[in-house]
Design brief:
By secondary structure, the protein is of the alpha+beta class. The chain folds into two domains: 115 residues, no CATH class; 107 residues, Homeodomain-like (Arc Repressor Mutant, subunit A). It is built from ten helices and seven strands. The strands form two sheets. It has a four-stranded antiparallel β-sheet, with no helix packed on it. Strands 3-2-5 form a three-stranded antiparallel β-sheet, with no helix packed on it. α1 packs parallel to α3, α2 packs antiparallel against α3 and α4 runs antiparallel to α5. It is globular, with a radius of gyration of 18 Å. The mean pLDDT is 85.
């Protein structure tokens, strides 16, 4: 389960708040507790079962039964789209292909976790990132973020890229595009409405940025996610 917004998750008998882009792999034995009653929140999820699943998760060393942050939520989106295409394509899904897709995703996600330097990042930098994750649809003001960290703007930008691997502006763009990809599944929302909601009042600029991120236009992405195109 991938949370696109802040949510409360119960793990190890304790309930705590987790930021957007947090993932949780539930086992059949886990009691599910998540969400926030006081604010709007959203998530993506998929259910899979079978003897191969625990083996793949163990071999891939992906955390099970505990929340963990992900740096690129679009990785799950791409896997889901490929899985939907396999389920809806041909005369029937191929079990080997589906297993390979799942195994490749688990290993790719685990590799991202190994590459993260979050545990080494100063708490003030983690606070800045959390602030960005809660306000990514708003205009980015680097001087305000720098004051929050107690650093100069150049020093903040250098440290953010050193620990998180991307510049601040690119990180904001990733958050916006990932949220847009999620919202595009709702066919009752106009694309222009979604663009404005994630911080792009200019539809052309939004479409250009979306295609750069996902390799396709928002309209084609929406059709593909619904299984309307190959």
């Amino acid at each position: 389960m991938l949370f696109h917004s802040e949510a409360q998750i119960k793990s190890g008998g304790k309930i705590r708040s987790w930021p957007a882009s947090t993932m949780m792999v539930w086992t059949p034995q886990d009691g599910h507790f998540y969400g926030v009653a006081s604010i709007a929140w959203s998530h993506s999820w998929f259910h899979c079962s079978g003897d191969a699943i625990p083996k793949i998760l163990k071999a891939g060393r992906l955390p099970v039964g505990q929340p963990f942050p992900v740096s690129d939520p679009s990785l799950l989106e791409r896997y889901l789209l490929d899985t939907v295409a396999e389920l809806n394509g041909w005369q029937g899904p191929d079990e080997v292909t589906l297993r390979n897709l799942f195994e490749n995703y688990v290993r790719a996600q685990a590799r991202q976790l190994l590459d993260r330097k979050d545990q080494l990042a100063p708490s003030r930098l983690l606070d800045v990132r959390t602030h960005i994750e809660h306000h990514f649809t708003e205009k980015v003001r680097l001087p305000e973020l720098a004051r929050q960290a107690g650093w100069s703007v150049p020093h903040l930008c250098t440290e953010f890229r050193r620990f998180f691997g991307v510049p601040i502006i690119q990180y904001v763009q990733q958050l916006r595009m990932n949220q847009a990809a999620y919202l595009l599944r709702d066919h009752n929302r106009r694309i222009g409405e979604i663009a404005a909601q994630v911080g792009y009042p200019d539809l052309y600029a939004f479409s250009k940025m979306f295609k750069r991120r996902f390799g396709t236009s928002p309209r084609h992405f929406r059709k593909r996610s619904a299984g309307l195109v190959d």
